[in-house]
Amino acid sequence: MYDVEAVRADFPILSREVDGHPLVYLDTASSAQKPRAVIEAIAETYENEYANVHRGLHYLSSLATERYESTREIVARFLGAASEEEIIFTSGATDAINLVSYAWAAPRLREGDEIVLSALEHHANIVPWHFLRERQGVRLRWVDLGEGGTLDPGAVLDAIGPRTRLVAVSHMSNVLGGLVDVAAICRGAAERGVPVLVDGSQTAAHTSVDVAAIGCDFYAITGHKLYGPSGSGALYARRERMAETRPFRGGGDMIRDVTREGVVYAGLPLRFEAGTPAIVPQIGLGVALRYLTRLGMEQVAAHERGLRAHARRRLSGIEGVSVWGADDSGPILSFEIAGLDARKIAVELDRLGIATRAGSFCSRPLLRTLGVGALCRASFGLYTTQAEVELFCDAVRDLARAAVAREALPGGSV
After folding, report:
1. Using CA atoms, how far apart are residues 296 and 1, in angstroms rounded to an integer?
2. pTM metric for this prediction
3. Is 393 a catalytic residue?
């Protein structure tokens, strides 16, 4: 049985107050809080184990290298990769997607070639492709959403044409929470000879991921949403794709030899990791992934699904509240209150110690598709409790009732 109170005891920050109220942290989709195990591992590394990796022969360097490289193996297991050599360390999913854009796509795509994107995408999975559009004449083909903000894999596959060179798609929307059937997209794209990049920023923290079963060519994750440190992350790259990818950052550690005449690159995946890496953040990511593995991702997913379903039922029954997204979604709940600006909602909730997020969530094309300027978003995590969800729903209800009452007054306005 999933013991959320025992889990919460692992997160020191959850015991604090905000303006005299217990902190209710419902902004996990933006960045997750860190368990004590990660915090202590970071402190221990800096206090007793820190040195540069890969280069030293002394004890501390060897120890730091062992800790650092063990994370690569942990990430590979966590994602179901065939080998740790398919894992490139990055500073996060944004860095990972940019790596694919610069190092794999840019050398291969020509003017008139196409990249298929969905309307669900975060800016991190849009802007790097716009760079190729601006600089190389690559065309972006957009796939619109179906009913309820869902993405039909068939619509994505229908968008693939003779000049399509890549499909780039999110596994889970950071606004609507909907899971995309990326495995179906990858199967269909493979039949057409088109690689697929999956942005797994949201998904990997909330459910099991198996890149072999999905069949993707690239899969990007970010550590700070996985209860690990900011500045950590990874890119899974299928070995065949990695062999097609050219190094795009030059410096130490990504070479075997340098002469006046040229360079000999290091093997995979080190040739894509130039310079002194984010040693301690990546060690912390490894600890975070071990923590998630011990909890069990299926148990985490079941806990969070239950919270999201309950919150949706409650909010959907409140006059003046509109909830976006399908019923069966990840632990992300975006909503509106009629007559109230989304940022005003977030500020009022914050006065009660409830941390949410408001705005476009770096997904402006999606919000334009939905016809809204901004939304408020509550996002749940493995430490969120039923009581916190009830407190949040009660607060939204009170804000909605107050807004309705003001509108009912003669000349009423918020």
Report:
1. 11
2. 0.96
3. no
